[in-house]
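User: Run a structure prediction on this.
Assistant: Running it now.
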Amino acid sequence: MISLFQPAPSLPKLPPSEHFWMPRDASVTAANIDWLYMFMVWMSVICTVGIFAAMAYFCTKYRATSRKANERAERSSDHNTTLEVTWSIIPLFVVIALFVWGFKGFVDLRTPPKDSLEIHAIGKRWAWSFQYPHGVDNALHVPVDRNVRIVIQSLDVLHSLYIPNFRTKMDAVPGRYTDLWFRATEAGEFPIFCAEYCGTSHSDMLSNVVVHPPGGYEKWVKEQIEIANSLPPVELGKRVYEKQGCNACHTIDGSPKIGPTWKGLFGKNESLQSGRNVKVDENYIRESILDPQKEIVAGMPNSMPVTKLSDREITGVIEYLKTLK
């Protein structure tokens, strides 16, 4: 497996959102969701204004002008069948219309087209990575105007892949696969967030969707294969560190984080939770990547997920560690 490392080519700058409080919509399903949302908002506004207007009217018309007038008993009616039927039937039609409209949109969102390009998304504390048929990257690269299905999984805890501009979100659940689909309508870069609290660095679990113009996605893939094949081991290891999310838990400057710092790690004797000591050599690093729960450093949490790297990438990581004196 070959990792994709180079940034995407320059993409057109998108104009600002045409919505007052919503990000720019950039998928085929976003307009329907926005329409339904705005319908509910303005229905709520109209009802709220109507209720407050009625309250103000009644408070003004039936206010007490004196204590004597306030205490005088007046005949009143407490039931009006026509009024009760009216305020029950009219909202019923609105609610049924909202249900039908919303359910149709839900079915559309949960039914990916058969011709969709499939990409795997992996959530782990605290980074996203995306697997392509030829490699891995920490940004989601897709072609414009093509159906894309994202198969989502989590390697540790509950996460949630959220792309505001596409109006789509799906949880990443440990031990199972979930999915979402979209069809981007504009080339450009759009943010990705984790929308499910997953730990101390939840707010740093960020990424981007890079939507390539026609022909750009295929060109980008080809370029990444050529570049990755030509990288020397140390540079390859550095790129893996940056792109696979290793920097979320391991520093290279000696400062503490969730995992051991990589500075000065190679050749060091580490104390393990099992009580034995081990020298950090090539075999230990390889084993720690392939089976991170087998030998855990003393004082460190059991939080490193299994990372899918090729043999060449693992060798690159080892060579890169050797340079961090």
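Confidence is low (pLDDT under 50) at residues 1-8.
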